[in-house]
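# nightly structure sweep
# worker-07 picked up a monomer target from the shared queue
# config: single-sequence mode, recycle default, output format = structure tokens
# input follows
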Amino acid sequence: MSQAFLVERQGDTERWTLNDPTTRNALSDTMVLGLYEASLRAKQDDTLRIVVLTGAPGAFSAGGSLGHFSSAIGQPLQPGENDPLIALNKGFGDVLHALCELPQLLVCAVDGAAMGGGFGLVCCADHVIATLRSSFATPEVTLGLPPAQIAPFVWMRLGEAAARQCLLQGRIYRAQDAQALGLVDEVVADDALDAALRDRVQALKRAAPGAVASTKRLLQRLRGDVPDLRDEAAIAFASALRGPEAAGGLAAFAKKQPAPWAGTEKK
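# output follows
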């Protein structure tokens, strides 16, 4: 198991940790693969009852890692060239679907920023605990990118009106605002996350594991499967990353300047 993604087992509970503090736990290929493999394994594990997904101290996840995409930013494909970005982006969509299909209870423990892809992971949880200092956003559109893979999961979690508010504006929500939105279930003091998590896990064990798995399947049938837009979303993301908006938006972000399309206020 990679050190960028840690799995710790204690009895019938596993703690999955996104573990790259230097990048605020940005979702690297290694981390995404770890999440996917752990989800597939957990789905077949009848002895596992609860999965806790969290981030190394300082953040939950800053979102997708664009480091290995840097050479593609603003660079259109050559005629007839297959885009490797499509498969890479689709892989994160695979993770989101796998998390939603877990028969176990999935708890997200958030302490810090949950941005972009990190926001998407939170949307897959059955219960979300966040500290007061936590923040949530889907800032992709402010960088010239569509929040492509996470869009269906944000929509399923929050409903269309709130999803539009998040996905089309890129605004930042503090923990209590995210709770009012329906993203977070429980807000605790900054130094109380571990205790609250222990209490919540213990309380969740009142539910029988077989009944939980069956109920999750019924709820999924009731609401319908998450729309499978993985291919379309990956193409949209790859196309945008190679386009001029992403090039301008990401360059401005790196320089801490307004994006080219943001305009300036008239005095």
